[in-house]
Amino acid sequence: MKTDIAIIGGGPAGLAAAIAARDKGFTVAVVDAAEPPIDKPCGEGLMPGGVEALKKLGVAVPALDSWPFRGIRFLCDGVTACAKFPDAYGLGVRRTTLHALLVERAAAVGVNLVWNTPVRGLEGFNARWIVGADGLNSRVREWAGFDASRASVRRFGFRRHFPVTPWSDTVDVHWGHECQVYVTPVSASEVCVAVISRHQYLRLDEALAKFPVLMEHLGGLVPTTPERGSVTECRRLPRVYRGNVALLGDASGSVDALTGEGLTLCFQQAFALADALACGDLSAYGAAHKGIVRLPSIMGRLMLLLDGRTRLRRQVIRTLASNPGLFSRLLAFHVGRTPLFVPGLPWSRLSKTH
Predict the structure, then answer these.
(1) pLDDT band at residue 344 under the 50/70/90 scheme
(2) pLDDT for 246-294, tens place per residue?
(3) Tens-place pLDDT, residues 151-184
(4) Which residue in 14, 67, 86, 264 could disulfide with 50, CB within 3.0 to 4.6 Å?
């Protein structure tokens, strides 16, 4: 295979990188062992940065196949805290729908898409650059000799879809004892419901029984999809490029799914990688990657402090509920819309990092 850039992994990260690289004039091939559309169990919510990145990639999500959400709600022990995005919106969309749209766009801009083709090493590629976009358990990372790393936090998620009209214009996060259940509207007649916990045997049905408020909306409904599960990790790598090989998306490190920023991160990394390749300098990508993941990593660690700490969680959510302005500032900071400033807190003058 002769090409300027060979991308191993045809998920959203790999396809976004391919589209961005084609925009720079490179020839690009994407290779994956699966056949599209490729599904992945996830919350299926795109934060505002991800919505903007899709537009920049030239991908338009049909209104009938998605649902806009205006903010985030936390629900815990009868207390509800809500914050809206400042002058922006997120988008709920089924992963298979999103993947099909990215495949269509990649083909339209001239990416060479090679499906149903397992990759067993890097030797078969006649490419100037090789990109590993093959997920958490990246083989490219191993083959290219990157330094080993361990996940600082590993959790487990399970997801199903339910046929119901969305009951709010937010993504709802229901906080419970050592787990969170979050609900994302993905169309006018369907929601995605997912549970995340540190316990790999906690399934969605068992978790839902602990949230009577949520069961009032879902009770008696027959899911439209079977339960599917995946792993979510907090992982930082010492470096994301080595020689002519670069890592992208979850292969290059990850944040907990509770942040909702996974897709936004991989899209931003795709643009940064394309810029660096256009300059012929992967060190620029390494520097940009650190900036891209810094803020989500911080916010992910802060939110995970609430996981398993009942007293702290209740106190924080009560504070956010009684002070909506504070929650709004935190959410705006989380999605990179504004620096965080809370009077009297010396650490709160934090500028945007991506």
Answers:
(1) very low
(2) 999 999 999 999 899 999 999 999 999 999 999 999 999 999 999 999 8
(3) 888 999 999 999 999 999 999 999 998 899 999 9
(4) 264
Q: Report the SS3 class of residue 127.
A: strand
DSSP string, 157-196: EEEEEE----S-SEEEEEEETTEEEEEEEEETTEEEEEEE
Q: What is the CATH topology of the domain spanning 2-60+94-151+233-304? A: FAD/NAD(P)-binding domain (3.50.50)
* Tokens describing residue 336: 């990179």
Evaluate whether 78 touches 171 at the Cβ level (below 8 Å).
no
CA atoms within 13 A on the CB side of 2: 0
The amino acid at 280: G
The predicted-structure confidence for 29-76, as pLDDT tens digits, reads as follows: 999 999 999 999 888 999 999 999 999 999 999 999 999 999 999 999
Name which of 93, 116, 97 is nearest 105 in CA terms: 97
Contact 11, 31 (CB under 8 A): no
Determine what percent of the chain falls in helix, strand and coil, rounding each to the nearest 5.
Answer: 35, 25, 35
In terms of phi and psi (left: phi > 0; alpha: psi -120 to 50; beta: otherwise), the region of 249 is: left
